[in-house]
Amino acid sequence: MEDLTGRRLVVVTGASSGIGLAAAEHLACRGDQVVLVGRDPARLQAAAERVREASGERPELFRADFAVLDDVRGLAERLRDAYDRIDVLANNAGAIALQPLTTVDGFEMSIQANHLAPFLLTNLLADRIGRIVVTASGAHRFGRLNPDDLNSPLRRYRPMGAYGTSKQANILFTAEAARRWPHIPAYSFHPGVVRTRFANDSRLVAFGMRVLPFRSPERAAGTLVWLANQDPARLVQGGYYYNRRPRRPFRKAADLRLAARLWAASAEAVGIPA
Ligand SMILES: NC(=O)c1ccc[n+]([C@@H]2O[C@H](COP(=O)([O-])OP(=O)(O)OC[C@H]3O[C@@H](n4cnc5c(N)ncnc54)[C@H](OP(=O)(O)O)[C@@H]3O)[C@@H](O)[C@H]2O)c1
Question: Which keywords belong to this entry (predicted)?
């Protein structure tokens, strides 16, 4: 599967739908070798077909459920077997859990699927990654991250609080990754409010879809594609972006000591050295 033509290899998680699929299509059309990671096999196949129709090339597919850390470990192993170098890892998979859920690994669903899983995947691939782009969210404003208790949202469950906490973690993770791995450009971004399958089961969001100015997945993917392509000299290492501009996140997502504590707690949670 190694590409000898000098094209970049870009791995996009959450590529079976929404922003990830739109970004994968765009990157493939620009000439990148795109690798799609998704959870649902049928949606993943359909996404591959869309990328093939758009770019003329069928991408490689990898399936993993981020609610299962063993799936993430297996995914990292299969990616390592397949590719010596991953020029860009787009950590984009994510969801809001409308009910309190505990994963098989014992963690609140949002913090695991949206933060611990990509944290583990990135660490297991770090020696091969050329750049990291993380789909975070302005919803980090609702976060109440406590690194000493990653399951704290379960106690008085609020979907947006749990989701916001995981997105706060995305921004802190990116900042700390940039500090620990200065040789790997790393950026997070808010894609805007986007018309995707995200929170499709929520009546509130369905109502919002009718009345709010949602943007298309294609437009939202623009910032991901831009961050994957810009010269790092023109970007802020570890920075958080919105509409292709650096933006200061809320203080709770800009606290570098909290970022360091989150890293240590996450490493312990997934069983890797801190
Ligand atoms: N839509 C918005 O307004 C908005 C705003 C800010 C940030 N975001 C962020 O944008 C990212 C992409 O979301 P989207 O809006 O494009 O939603 P989407 O259409 O629902 O796509 C989400 C993607 O993540 C995958 N995913 C979800 N849970 C997973 C799990 N447990 N394991 C593996 N993959 C999983 C989905 O796979 P399946 O196909 O199997 O479900 C899908 O490919 C997320 O990180 C989200 O937090 C979205």
Answer: Oxidoreductase
- Shortest-distance atom of ligand 1 to CA 22: 16
Cα 86 from Cα 80, distance rounded (Å):
9
CATH code of the domain occupying 9-269: 3.40.50.720
Tell me the best of 11, 17, 171 to mutate to test the pocket of ligand 1, counting ligand atoms within 8 Å of each CB and taking the most: 17
> 193, 217, 215: which is closest to 205 by C-alpha?
193
Q: What is the dihedral of CA 239, 242, 247, 249, to 10 degrees?
A: -80
Strands 240-242 and 245-246: antiparallel
| 209-234 pLDDT, tens digit each | 666 778 999 999 999 999 999 999 99
Q: Which of 83, 163, 187, 241 is catalytic?
A: 163
Task: Using alpha carbons, select from 71, 68, 63 the residue that is nearest to residue 104.
Answer: 68
Tokens of 67: 């609610």
163 is catalytic: yes
Q: What is the pLDDT of residues 151-178, one digit of tens each?
A: 999 999 999 999 999 999 999 999 999 9
